[in-house]
Design brief:
Layout lengths: L7 E5 L3 H12 L3 E5 L12 E4 L1 H9 L3 H5 L7 E6 L4 E6 L5 H5 L4 E4 H9 L8 E2 L4 E6 L4 E5 L4 E4 L1 E4 L6 H13 L17 E13 L11 E7 L2 E9 L2 E15 L7 H11 L3 E3 L2 E2 H6 L1 E13 L4 E2 L2 E3 L5 E2 L7 H20 L14 H33 L4 H10 L5 H7 L27
Parallel strand pairs: 1-2, 1-11, 2-7, 4-13, 11-20
Antiparallel strand pairs: 3-6, 4-5, 8-9, 9-10, 12-15, 12-18, 13-14, 14-15, 16-17, 18-21, 19-20
Helix pairs in contact: 1-5, 1-9, 9-10
């Protein structure tokens, strides 16, 4: 009798979510294939990733922690300013307590370095393919076949859409749902505010620049925040010789599945508009822009898609949830969701599993239950983090009189314990991979959800 084909997970997208999926599946001994539409893995886009203690505990479980933090300087100190460069708070030290309180620091790392660190952990590089833009897929009772723009096709058990905010996979899922039953694809584009697509109320210029003693002096491990009316900035010195910075401004709200996209010319004009805006002391946006390595102007979409799966296809990361980056929690949210998904897939796909459901290609009913469990387990904590991120961009942009009072007259008197209370539902209680041991000597791994 011919043996059942070995389960294989096809992954659309080779960025943060795609590479983390690859490493996590590898640890579970589940076969996978990453299909990245771009020409390279981890291109330099001028973006950075905040790695907080709850995410670092997961990276440690997978043997990724040292590779992630090695090029980074742990954050230890912060200062806050108003948009005229005046000091609001000069000695914010709460983040320096993270290693003692949680067992891990908070660090910022270049997005390209973060992706490369994960890619380097993939033992078989032939399982990560570039220039493979997905154009279609066909499902049957035994699996799924994915077709790419170069005429190739790939066979797998399931397809995971890890292809970002402008997800091709999500679009294909909706198309097939509508073909099967008109109107049934609506929830694949409806978000938690009950409207189609994501809300875009802010845009952000994010950059990587070089520190220097003249225009942009910034000690390693330092953070600068500035508050302004409908605008704010953050600068973080996360890697030696570099700092990551962001300028947010409010725009006319747009609701839709396709958010505004900006060119390099748009970015330059945006900088010109805000060139004299103070980031700290006499340091301006123009000073930071002139010292840039790379910078990009992007929309800040907000929303959580209602439906995360259909048939043998399921989505993760920015394909289903997007939030402003002010709180720096988006990437860690994607990681947590993938942990939940892997915990549901391991019993039915891993050859190491002793679960009675394991063996051959799982039925659609088995997959439906696994995908629904993933959504249910991830959604509660995701919603909390999403709401915190939405509040952060509006608080820093001083949308209300209350936010202005709190920033200028309440926060300067807050203790570190009080500041941590705001994040009590985030720093700790994160999911962990069930098939791997966890280091219970780390305080964060003892915090209950």
């Amino acid at each position: 009798m011919e043996s059942a084909p070995k389960p294989r997970v096809l992954i659309a997208g080779g960025s943060i979510s795609g590479q983390f999926l690859a490493v996590a599946l590898q640890s579970a001994n589940i076969d996978f294939l990453v299909l990245e539409r771009g020409p390279e893995i981890g291109p330099q886009l001028g973006a950075s990733v905040g790695c907080h203690p709850h995410g670092n505990s997961i990276f440690d479980q997978l043997g990724l922690y040292e590779a992630v933090v090695a090029p980074s300087t742990p954050l230890a100190h912060a200062q806050a300013f108003d948009n005229r460069g005046n000091v609001v708070e000069s000695d914010i030290t709460v983040i320096s307590e993270h290693p003692a309180r949680f067992g891990y620091p908070a660090v910022f790392i270049q997005r390209c370095d973060f992706i490369t660190a994960m890619y380097n952990k993939v033992r078989d590089k032939s399982k990560v393919l570039v220039n493979k833009a997905i154009v279609d897929y066909i499902e049957d009772d035994e699996g799924i076949t994915v077709y790419t723009s170069d005429g190739s096709n790939y066979r797998g058990t399931i397809l995971i859409g890890a292809d970002g905010i402008h997800s091709t996979v999500r679009g294909l899922m909706k198309k097939k749902a509508e073909e099967a039953e008109p109107g049934s694809g609506t929830k694949l584009e409806t978000t938690n505010n009950g409207k189609p697509g994501f809300l875009t109320e802010y845009k952000c210029l994010f950059c990587i620049s070089r520190t220097n003693d003249k225009e942009c002096p910034m000690p390693a491990g330092e953070s600068y925040w500035t508050y302004g009316r409908d605008n704010s900035t953050t600068a973080v010195s996360g890697q030696p010789g570099l700092f990551f910075w962001f300028l947010w401004t409010r725009t006319d709200p747009v609701q839709g599945i396709r958010s505004p996209r900006y060119t390099e010319k748009d970015a330059e004009e945006f900088v010109q508009q805000w060139s004299n805006r103070k980031m700290c002391g006499d340091w301006t946006i123009r000073d930071a822009w002139n010292a840039r390595v790379r910078g990009t102007l992007v929309s800040q979409e907000e929303g959580i898609i209602d439906q995360w799966s259909r048939g043998r296809v399921v989505m993760v990361g920015d394909a289903i949830h997007k939030m402003s980056v002010n709180a720096g929690l988006g990437a860690m949210c994607a990681v947590e969701g993938i942990v939940h998904l892997i915990n549901e897939l391991y019993p039915i796909l891993s050859p190491n599993s002793t679960d009675e459901r394991h063996g051959g290609s799982p039925s659609q009913d088995t997959l439906d239950k696994a995908f629904q469990a993933y959504r249910t387990k991830h959604l509660k904590r995701l919603t909390r983090i999403y709401n915190l991120s939405c509040q952060a961009v509006r608080f820093e942009g001083q949308r209300t009189l209350l936010s202005r009072i709190v920033a200028n007259y309440v926060l300067p008197w807050c203790s570190n314990a009080a500041r941590l209370w705001v994040f009590k539902g985030v720093l700790g209680g994160q999911p962990m991979l069930n098939h791997l041991p966890r280091d219970m000597s780390k305080p964060i791994n003892k915090i209950q959800a």
